[in-house]
């Protein structure tokens, strides 16, 4: 499975309104998919995401940063955040932070 396909699969069907344990499992799945992408491929993967997938990814990034379990995972999430913000723009951040659907 390609890196893009793995990330898209992890982002599919976000668990809006689901119990917390489902949200945690989904976030772990996304984190595992992101961690499997080599740094040099992050930009390619982000460019391959649709706008809604980018929004879901940003929500998962913020959730991960909120509950990060260490420097290594924070560094990974911040790399993705930087590339995603560069690609999608600051409007995505505003949109994600203002939406009521959370992960």
Characterize the structure shown.
The chain is mostly helical. 72% of the residues lie in helices and 0% in strands. The protein contains six helices and no strands. The protein has helices at residues 3-11, 20-35, 42-47, 51-66, 71-88, 90-98. The longest helix is centred in the C-terminal third of the chain and has 18 residues, at 71-88. The relative contact order is 0.18. The mean pLDDT is 93.
Brief account:
This protein has 103 residues and is mainly α.
Please give the structural blueprint.
Blueprint lengths: L2 H9 L8 H16 L6 H6 L3 H16 L4 H18 L1 H9 L5
Helix pairs in contact: 1-2, 4-5, 4-6
Features:
single chain, 103 residues, mainly alpha, 6 helices
Q: Output the structural class.
A: mainly alpha
Q: What count of helical segments does DSSP give?
A: 6
Largest sheet: none
Low-confidence stretches: none
The count of β-strands is 0
**Termini separation (Å)?**
25 Å
- Describe the global form: globular
* SSE pattern: HHHHHH
Fraction of residues in helix: over 70%
Radius of gyration: 12 Å
Task: Please report which band the strand proportion falls in: under 5%, 5-15%, 15-25%, 25-35%, 35-45% or over 45%.
Answer: under 5%
Mean pLDDT: 93
């Amino acid at each position: 499975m390609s890196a893009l396909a793995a990330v898209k699969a992890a982002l599919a069907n976000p668990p809006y309104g689901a119990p917390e344990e489902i949200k945690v499992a989904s976030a772990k799945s996304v984190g595992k998919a992101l961690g499997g992408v080599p740094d040099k491929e992050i930009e390619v993967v982000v460019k391959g995401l649709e706008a809604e997938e980018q929004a879901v990814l940003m929500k998962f990034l913020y959730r991960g940063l909120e509950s990060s379990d260490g420097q290594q995972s924070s560094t990974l999430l911040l790399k993705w955040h930087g590339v995603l913000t560069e690609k999608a723009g600051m409007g995505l951040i505003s949109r994600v932070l203002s939406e009521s659907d959370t992960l």
